[in-house]
Structures
1.
Amino acid sequence: QVRLVESGGGLVQAGGSLRLSCTASGGTFDSDNINWYRQGPGKEREFVASVSWSAGTTDYADSVKDRFTISRDNARTTVYLQMNRLKPEDAAIYYCNIKRFPRLNYWGQGTQVFVSS
């Protein structure tokens, strides 16, 4: 059974940085994209970034492009989300995710990010 565990959330001032981690276990992930989503207070869950486990290809939401960087450590089966120049609107619960066609959808428990203005 695939398990995703996020960590690294916390409180940071606007303009500051945080690094989130997502450790995956329970299988192999060579064919997967690992995704980060977030859900702010009163908002829908939204896509943040993704990385291809094998090729390292990345994709970002426009709202975080040039501020956030996603990377992976294959040996540790961990994906990182480096978040720089944080804004109050980045405050959310951040979730790690793997989607597998056609219907499998794995989520972690989330890690909370607070950004003070």
2.
Amino acid sequence: QVQLVETGGGLVQPGGSLRLSCAASTTIYRINDMGWYRQAPGKERELVGIIGRTGRTNYADSVKGRFTISRDNGKNTVYLQMNSLKPEETAVYYCNMNIVYFGETWGQGTQVTVSS
């Protein structure tokens, strides 16, 4: 069983920045798409962005120009750099990886709170 470990969440003021990381517990298996999702209280989980193995990215319209996803294939790690954060982006952020032989795998989630 492969586990995803997320780090980097916390409290940040509006307009501030945070960087989330998510590492898979294996470097043996190939990982295709890696993504970030978020779920605010009382709302459904939504896609933030996805990065393919070659680095091609796709973002939700609401975060374009402010969030950046990157990955390190050697470490099987995905990152989410979040700038100009807004209070309405307070949510639990989850990473997701499509791991060969294991399929869709989710992290445990990390809380991001944007508040003054």
3.
Amino acid sequence: QVQLVESGGGLVQAGGSLRLSCAASGRTFSIYGMDWFRQAPGKEREFVAAITWSGGSIDYADSLKGRFTMSRDSAKNTVYLQMNSLKPEDTAGYYCAAAVEGGVQYWGQGTQVTVSS
């Protein structure tokens, strides 16, 4: 199994920045990609960004390109989500997910981001 722990959420004013972290442990050798998703109250879960574990190929939701940057530190088994120019509509629970061999996906517990206007 893979365990994921997110951190870095909090309350920030509009225009500010936050960096979220997602640390993976356990069978990390089985991970082939990691994603960030977010979900606001009453809304569907939304894809934010994804990275391949080996090659570092990164993909973003079109609406977030230019403001959000995903990266990874393979030595620390950690991925990051740098969020700049935050807007109130970015308020949501942010979750990381790890895709492993066999099609299984593991999820973290999430970290809350609140952007005040």
